[in-house]
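Sample pair:
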Amino acid sequence: MDIDGSGIRQRAVILEQGVRMPGFHFVHCHQSGFSRKLEERALRGCLHSDDYEVRCLAKTNTARLFVSAYNGYPVRSWEDDRVRVYMEGHVYGLTESDLREQILRLARDVLSGTPSGRLERWLRGTDGEFLLIIHDKKNLSWFVLNDALAHLPVYYYATADRMILSREMGFLLSCEPDTDMDPLSAALYALFIFTPGTRTLFRNIRRMAPGSLIRVDPGGRWRFQRVVEWNFETSAEYRMDWIDQLTGLFRETCDAMRNISSGGRRIISLSGGIDSRAVIAGLLPDPQLHSETFLDKEKTAVRDVRVASRVARWAGSPWSLTPLSPVRAEDLNKLMDLKKGMCSFGMGFILSFFQSIRERYGSKVLFFTGNTGMLLRHYGLPADIDDSAKLSEYILSRHHQLPMDMVAAWTGISPAAVREKLTEIVDRYPENSLEGKYLHFIMTGKGMIWHYENADLARYYFWPCAPLESTRFYQMASRIPQSMKKDYQLYRCFIGHLNPDAGRIPDANTGLAFSAALFPLIYGAEQRMVSALSRYSRLMLKARRLWTHKGRSRVESEARKCMEEQLKSMITHSGSVEVLGRFLRGGGGISKFQIELLLTLASVREMIEGRPISLERYFGREMH
């Protein structure tokens, strides 16, 4: 960890065993001051593994700024006579001197209350994944600013007397042990695998919105400001230079990310799909790039492995295959420790892959991924969706992961209340068209929340780079009309411009080359079938079990046994017990994904209510 200036090194107070995500942790107390008891809680939230260290970067009568990090995790600071700025993460494409100049100028603009338009232009025009914490040395105010897409999840808890902000949910929960689970958020999470907007699973704890500024005055007053407001209304016009501009910007982004001086090897996580294919095409030529692919224990991704090895040979990139270890209860417990439910247990498999990469290459790796390519894809609405209520109903039918009656039985939130809240959320989106509002739900929910929470797991091990999610590329792609993205038109042109040979290798999902004439026909037919099924909630859920939920759950699986034990102890109302029984009697029709989702939520509830942790009774067992 590289900190400029006089950070005060402190030894963490180890009050329990565990590991935590790296990053900033900020606490500001006004009337009550910063008590020793609260300081101990804060340090407990910074618990670290053997290669971590915890620092107190700033200390005043009312505030503390901590950072927990491993060697190579990007944290730095700059200052002048008026301001000191701490940055977690990276800004790409700038020299060190230019970065310092821009960051200090930006900080002075923030202090002086410069019109938000200039700040917005800087955020929209800057590629990076970062969190800035700014300290006004003269009047002792604090400011927190994140990047335009909120690549780094940040959570906060604010009252009239206290502001607690952290990159790690466990830090806030350790400082505020009385925080409980939010039933409505739990219902939305059970349906969509994420909580829309700034909600989290926990009452009164919020997620920092993309491109936001938080100000904490010396007197303890705090203010929130949305600097960047994403609007997904697309242009209706066609421009011949869009593909050239998009391709040029993507190559520029890949070069900027590659040129980070990390001191470690460049790795790309290569699958058989189009997204990682685009990234490796954008990085070429790169003789230092090494390709890595994993294969799950059930070997569901054999076709991906075959295609990935072929792509690596074409790219001239050394390639390694990592067979994943079976997911055990300890892995799920570690995932809960890291993310406190903000990632579902469906991601438990990836930890052994990340651990393998770090053991072989160290923590200074630059880890390129294909996340996510979403804005190059088409997300259309049926023509008869003509009001917000119908849009909300379509979203529920198209995207729900669990039966509504099961969600209501477990959370106590009725389907009507869920529909009302979802309609309220959709109505608040800034777009005028329903198509734009639907895109907003997809891009900010599945993209900026679900995908970014999952991508954040890699940062516990090393730094990930996602060129397809860079701010300027994202902004340009968001303006391109949906009509150009239908049936992969835009994506196929994009790949062809990057490198025509990349599109001639078959796709693992369809077995067809992206450049093949049949590819858009096959893909288009699949999408029309999904659109038709989306009208029928139960049929859509059955189809999802087959296509995306990793198969059926075995009745005797350890994960299912653990989940059943948890739910039966939590659900006591007779009507709800009957709903639970019907769901469980579905036998093999219940998917592994659904079991993992319910197991996540039940484990969060055990944690927050102080119940015995059921997963601990399953240590040593495979949870498949």
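Confidence is low (pLDDT under 50) at residues 1-19.
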